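Give me the fold.
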Amino acid sequence: MRWDFREGNAGCVKKPLLHYIENTGDTDLVFLEMFKADRFQDFSFSVWLARTPPELVMAHLHIDKATLDAIPREAPLITPI
């Protein structure tokens, strides 16, 4: 499932859905992320993959070593305010 948002749009992702945000434009993306929690937590899929044994990732995702090596090893910077 994919949603395309434009400036001024709002969206809600249900709790159990894995999701990501991708800026497909050529200007900076600014967004507000809200949670019903008293603290900020981030779960980066890239970091999780980097910390999982490579053989396991390649076997489960059916990818080769070159594809695995192309995945970023650090989470993109999201700064809580």
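The mean pLDDT is 81.
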